[in-house]
Amino acid sequence: MPERDDYLDRYTSVKSIVGEALPFELVCTIGGVFAGIILVKMIDAIEMIPGLLVLVPAILGMRGNISCTLGSRLGSAIHLGLISRIERNPELINNVAGSLTLSLIMSVVLGILAHLFTVALGMQSVGVVVLVSIAVFAGVSSGLILAVIAVVITIGAFRHGIDPDNVTTPALGTLGDVITMLMVFCAAKAVIWIWHITL
Amino acid sequence: MAYYTVTGIMKRGIPVLLVAAIISITAGQLLHAGQDLLIAFPVLLILIPPLIKVGGDTGSILGARLSSAFHLGLVEPVGGVVVRNNIIACLVIGGVSCVVLSVAVWAAAILLGIGVVYGLLLKITLIAGCIEMAVVFAATIGIAFVSHRHGLDPDDVVIPLITAIGDIVGIMAVFVAAWVVV
């Protein structure tokens, strides 16, 4: 079967794998640098809120996992013909509501875990209430923004004859870290601001 | 009855997310432990998020491609050409990304007014990137083969675990590289 062999040669050649994956990976890397820039801008907040740094990789990781599974489920749903309109569509509502509920529950868990681990290791923590508030605000708000982006990209791509599976997850991966880090930044600023008012 | 339900999505999501949460909180503790070093050398704070992303992404590409190869029955012994070419390709992607990353971080540092010598930054990025990829790729191959042998779908298991492991290894690798270079 010469055609099959041709396909396999291409499928397994180093050149074709690098050619397909490298451009996207470079865009993602630059997106990550923007997340890093926001993290540097947070240095004051990191010093003022002990335990904030513990939360950062966990919130980014949770956001990536939940958003990318949402993107890939929406892609499957639209291929199955389950999403034909945006308004009052139970599949769409359940997918977005499910991913936001997961974000809420996991944010509370992350805040509590971050506090307990930090105290158990004998390091200073700002307290469970502040860490849970930051995690919930950053986790749920970034989840909401990314869910809207996921729905818009999935439906927009499908209407223009582009496979959403090829577009939605990469776009969410690139935007996800930047938006999530921005929301952590806002949450930290808000906590500091409220603190100053109450103190 | 809807095909996707809120409870169904939660039941499938929570176990994997909990395991990933515990691993990434551990990664956060490493950052917290090195907080003084990070505040003294803020350029490391710019470097860490994209570096752990490169490790997680290249590991995920490798994991997803190995999973597909398993499903297609293309994986003979471990030393087969399919496995080898995938590893080489992911090393090339990771290597090029690290070089581009060092330039981007250097430019960002200059824009933010953080002084840094480019040669040092390139060395830190390359050393950390090599450690990260060596460990993450070994873990990816191990997890892919083990989950396949035990009848689990590698697609479900490999990627969430690899991104979380990539966080821990990447943060440690940056600290080790900074310690070696400075």
Summarize the topology:
The complex is a heterodimer of chains A (199) and B (182).
Chain A: H1 2-12, H2 14-41, H3 43-48, H4 52-79, H5 90-120, H6 128-159, H7 164-198
Chain B: H1 6-33, H2 35-40, H3 43-71, H4 81-111, H5 118-149, H6 154-181
Helix pairs in contact in B: 1-6, 3-4, 3-5, 3-6, 4-5, 5-6
GO molecular function, one term (chain B): monoatomic cation transmembrane transporter activity
InterPro entries (chain B): SLC41_membr_dom, SLC41_membr_dom_sf
Membrane topology (chain B): Multi-pass membrane protein
Describe this protein with a few key phrases.
heterodimer, A: 199 residues, mainly alpha, Tetracycline Repressor, domain 2, B: 182 residues
Model description:
Chain A is an all-alpha fold and 199 residues long. Chain A has a single domain, classed as Tetracycline Repressor, domain 2 (Orthogonal Bundle). Chain A has 7 helices and no strands. In chain A, helix 4 packs antiparallel against helix 5. The longest helix of chain A has 35 residues. The radius of gyration of chain A is 20 Å and the shape is globular. Chain B is mainly alpha-helical and 182 residues long. Chain B has a single domain, classed as Tetracycline Repressor, domain 2. Chain B is 85% helix and 0% strand. Chain B is built from 6 helices and no strands. In chain B, helix 1 runs parallel beside helix 6, helix 3 packs antiparallel against helix 6 and helix 4 packs antiparallel against helix 5. In chain B, 48% of the residues are buried. The model of chain B has no long low-confidence stretch (mean pLDDT 88). Classes of the chains: A mainly alpha (199), B mainly alpha (182). The interface between A and B is large, with 65 and 67 residues. Chain B: Its main location: membrane. Chain B: One of its GO terms (cellular component) is membrane. Chain B: Belongs to the SLC41A transporter family. Chain B: This is SLC41A/MgtE integral membrane domain-containing protein. Chain B: InterPro entries: SLC41_membr_dom (IPR006667), SLC41_membr_dom_sf (IPR036739).
